[in-house]
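Write out the 3D structure for:
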Amino acid sequence: MIPIRYVEPVFRPPSEADSLILPVTDGCSWNKCTYCEMYTAPQKQFKARSEEEVLESIRLTGLRYGDQVRRVFLADGDALVLPTRRLLSILAAIQTHMPAVRRISSYCLPRNLRKKSQEEINQLATAGLKMVYVGAESGDDAVLAAVDKGETYETTREALDKLGNAGITRSVMILNGLGGKALSAQHADQSARLINATQPEYLATLVVSFPHGEQRLRAGFPGWEPLDQHELFVETERFLSGLELRRTVFRSDHASNWLVLKGTLGADKDRLLAQVRQAIATPEQAHLRPAWARGL
């Protein structure tokens, strides 16, 4: 058994499937986003794990599997909320006890970088933090406020720039449909503006979904109406059309997506737009994911 204490449910990005999941916090320090169902369970109240527990977990895991672990993902929802000193201690311990590790990554809320200077972010990069996943969700301030994200276009841009300046790979997520019918156009336009301004290395779009119901979102977003399949494609087409990227790996292949899109922007922009436009015009010919296969 891995000598690490896990509190269910445990989440990680799809690309971290082969990583050691190392919790350094439990839950999410913000945990107010009305679209999110990840950290709402009672057992997932936010708490930073003790430094002693985390370092001991690293040491014991290293003793058993130190030469096998290649990637480590720092969990839960926003490991970078921890003070820089503690993060540096954790990163150093991983390098000491798991010398085969080649990539350390984590989720990150933009708000958690506001109090960290560029020099601190640079130190984390030098110590081994290679990749960060940022759920921007939208670049539109009205949408962000309506879902209680606790961020703005500017706070997200600032965080992504800090990470980029340090040489940390950024994977940014945008939620297709988050603005509902009323704010769909500005959601697409301002999200494209955010991505253009920051030029992240990776970009993904997911479709907003509510397996446990929409009550929380509707409470703070009166009149919110979900987009139907056609409207989701129209919003995606508008978002992609607005992107001007030099070299960003793009994925829209989450279980929530009706249409699977993969490519590099901007090299594959025309091809991706053609796929979306076909889905808009003739969805029966677009090889869409069947409803039963959407893991929601």
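The chain has two domains: 1-107, 132-296.
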